[in-house]
């Protein structure tokens, strides 16, 4: 019986999908004979093999994963009232502010007439969206601006409503102190609103000062107040990622050193984390987002916690003292090597923040933030897409300092932005010379590149650093958006990674997130608007590999050679692994060809009487190569799983793999 199964730890659902897969009507005339050695286990596959790369691009953090709904909540954007409208008598001030690193606040004063109003109104990120029946926690730091008691009124508003009132829900707050204090109220939405507004009115003759105006859903991931969007974290957890790289990407480097990501600014009391520019606001002038900044509300503490909760090894990336080299030709943009000490100290302090005892300065801060136990950081990446001799020159003193103090931390260097070529060839030996443990390779490449890379890692130096395929995605020629064909070729490429798991220790698709109204870069793995999210075909490919990565490689040959899409291999790519904890064998065959192909996999090394006990087959397939899941049709392309009872008792697998199909077999032996 055919049944459909979303391959997820949590979800098993029957779904109506126009891309449902069956073998009915699929015929092929050729025969592709694989042999799989079930006796000899190969290399151990690292737990970090398949993971996630997070960057605050495409409104990935503020406006995305970070569930804050108020934009410019601390009035710290260079235009202090960006994102806000004001009415009546509103003044931006800095005297006597409660948070030294966020000095701006607003004073609301009597408009001068009982019928007039003073207030501020926030537009949110593409609207302040609320869902009927859901609760939202409003909070604000406030003080009376005079000796008299003051009052504010908070409203969630739907300006598009044709109803008698625009007001969705409202609450009054008495500001009862001349000292700064946090006031909180929970608002229950009475309607679904996509493009709502948050309004805060002065509701007394006496003036009031307001700072850090915030609105979060109550129902965040694990119910945290400074929380993350639950649906998005769930999507990450459902992959079963082995590693979590953060916070970027180019934002680590900064357009200039001033705008680089500084982890120390992202920890401690959330109200006192200073704002940072986000380079993606202006990187692409044709997709310009002038209101894109980093609040750092989602900071390094939250990243470590998230890694822990989704079961992934944290992999922070820090600045090597080189500002983005794409954006800076002059060496003056970078820190001279002899002045690198503060950057190196940042690296050492970060390790202390993650792993240090509570008696240490940074370990103490971690404990105060709520995590007494160390985060058990094992990896640290230094530099993002750097190149030229300046990179090894800058990296060397970091390596020396970290090795001396923390010899067990594995260091990740980079081979630059190119997948091959002069810089790439220069940097790999340099990384080996410096003793990097892993090298981060990036490739955003078209179809033919992915088709040509099946053997990429077969010839890599087994005595050098290991590979971290840290950013990759198939960018179709003339089709730089998510579609099934791109994900199919990513799957083909991943079989080569898997086959070479002795040298490839990590791989993360990129970028991870994109807001449909705020993206700068695509394709991306997960898309969302303010209330919904969708998992793309690439997501399901990543999930399939991550959930079925196995513990050991197995040798599987097609007529004596690895199947890597080579001449005479009919566009087939394949890999096989063994999962020791379950005693399960897993075979992945990717048919990138436009024709179906017959595949048989003979099991070599079976003991006497040994046969397949139980087998299942999962396919990701779609007749329309350009199709993908969307917010309106999120189940267009899904993994489809079926038990294959006819395989029981056999000594070989056999299948007719349809054109353009990701196919995976899981079986155990008696
Ligand atoms: O993933 C988008 C960008 O691509 C990253 O920030 C950068 O590392 C790469 O160039």
Attribute tags:
single chain, 670 residues, alpha/beta, eight-stranded parallel barrel, six-stranded antiparallel sheet, 10 helices, 16% helix, 30% strand, globular, disordered N terminus, binds alpha-L-arabinofuranose
Written overview of the protein:
It is built from ten helices and 34 strands. By secondary structure, the chain is α/β, with parallel strands linked by helices. The radius of gyration is 27 Å and the shape is globular. Alpha-L-arabinofuranose binds next to loops.
Residues in helix, %: 10-25%
Strands of the largest sheet, in order across it? 2-14-17-18-19-20-21-22
Whole-angstrom Rg: 27 Å
Largest sheet: 8 strands, parallel, barrel
> What is the overall number of helices?
10
Low-confidence stretches: 1-21
Work out the oligomeric state of the chains in this entry: single chain
Number of strands: 34
Shape: globular
User: Could you say which structural class the secondary elements and strand pairing correspond to?
Assistant: alpha/beta
Terminal Cα span: 23 Å
């Amino acid at each position: 019986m055919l049944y459909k199964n979303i391959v997820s730890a949590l979800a098993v659902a029957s779904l109506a999908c126009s891309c449902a897969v069956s073998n009915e009507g699929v015929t092929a005339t050729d025969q592709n004979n694989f042999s799989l050695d079930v006796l000899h286990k190969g290399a151990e596959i690292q737990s970090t093999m398949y993971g996630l790369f997070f960057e605050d691009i495409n409104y990935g953090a503020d406006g995305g994963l970070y569930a804050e709904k108020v934009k410019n909540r601390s009035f710290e954007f260079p235009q202090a009232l960006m994102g806000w409208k004001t009415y009546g008598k509103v003044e931006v001030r800095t005297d006597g502010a409660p948070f030294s690193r966020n000095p701006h606040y607003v004073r609301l004063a009597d408009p001068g007439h009982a019928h007039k109003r003073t207030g501020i109104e926030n537009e949110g990120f593409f609207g302040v969206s609320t869902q009927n029946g859901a609760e939202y926690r409003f909070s604000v730091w406030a003080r009376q601006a005079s000796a008299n008691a003051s009052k504010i009124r908070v409203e969630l508003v739907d300006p598009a409503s044709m109803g008698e009132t625009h007001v969705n829900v409202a609450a009054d707050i008495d500001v009862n102190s001349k000292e700064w204090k946090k006031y909180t109220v929970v608002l229950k939405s009475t309607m679904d609103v996509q493009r709502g507004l948050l309004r805060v009115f002065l509701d007394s003759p006496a003036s009031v000062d307001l700072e850090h105006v915030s609105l979060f859903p109550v129902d965040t991931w694990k119910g945290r107040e400074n929380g993350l969007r639950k649906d998005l974290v769930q999507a990450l957890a459902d992959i079963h990622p082995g590693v979590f790289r953060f916070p970027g990407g180019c934002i680590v480097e900064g357009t200039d050193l001033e705008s680089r990501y500084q982890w120390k600014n992202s920890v401690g009391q959330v109200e006192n984390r200073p704002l940072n520019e986000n380079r993606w606001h202006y990187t692409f002038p044709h997709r310009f987002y002038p209101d894109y900044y980093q609040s750092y509300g989602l900071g390094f503490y939250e990243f470590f916690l998230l890694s822990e909760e989704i079961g992934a090894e944290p992999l922070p990336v820090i600045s090597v003292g080189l500002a983005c080299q794409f954006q800076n030709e002059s060496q003056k943009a970078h820190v001279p090597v002899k002045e690198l000490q503060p950057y190196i100290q940042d690296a050492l302090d970060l390790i202390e923040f993650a792993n240090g005892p509570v008696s240490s300065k940074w370990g103490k801060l971690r404990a105060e933030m709520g995590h007494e136990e160390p985060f058990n950081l094992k990896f640290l990446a230094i530099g993002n897409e750097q190149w030229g001799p300046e990179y090894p020159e800058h990296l060397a003193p970091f390596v020396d300092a970290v090795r001396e103090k923390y010899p067990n931390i594995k260091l990740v260097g980079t081979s630059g932005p190119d997948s091959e070529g002069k810089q790439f060839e220069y940097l790999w030996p340099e990384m080996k010379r410096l003793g990097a443990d892993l090298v981060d390779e990036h490739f955003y490449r078209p179809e033919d590149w992915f088709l040509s890379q099946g053997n990429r890692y077969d010839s890599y130096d087994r005595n050098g650093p290991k590979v971290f395929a840290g950013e990759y995605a198939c960018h179709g020629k003339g089709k730089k958006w998510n579609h099934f064909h791109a994900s199919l070729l990513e799957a083909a490429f991943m079989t080569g990674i898997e086959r070479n798991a002795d040298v490839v220790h990590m791989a993360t698709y990129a970028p991870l997130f994109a807001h449909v109204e705020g993206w700068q870069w695509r394709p991306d793995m997960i898309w969302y608007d303010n209330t919904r999210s969708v998992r793309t075909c690439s997501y399901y490919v990543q999930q399939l590999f991550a959930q079925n990565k196995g513990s050991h490689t197995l040798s599987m040959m097609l007529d004596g050679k690895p199947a890597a899409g080579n001449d005479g291999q009919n566009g087939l790519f394949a890999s096989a692994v063994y999962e020791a904890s379950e005693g399960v064998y897993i075979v992945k065959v990717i048919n990138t060809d436009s024709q179906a192909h017959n595949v048989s996999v003979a099991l070599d090394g079976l003991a006497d009487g040994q046969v397949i006990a139980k087998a299942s087959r999962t396919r990701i397939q779609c007749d329309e190569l350009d199709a993908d899941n969307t917010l309106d049709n999120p189940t267009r392309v899904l993994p489809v799983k079926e038990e294959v009872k006819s395989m029981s008792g056999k000594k070989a697998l056999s299948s007719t793999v349809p054109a353009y199909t990701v196919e995976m077999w899981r079986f155990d032996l008696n």
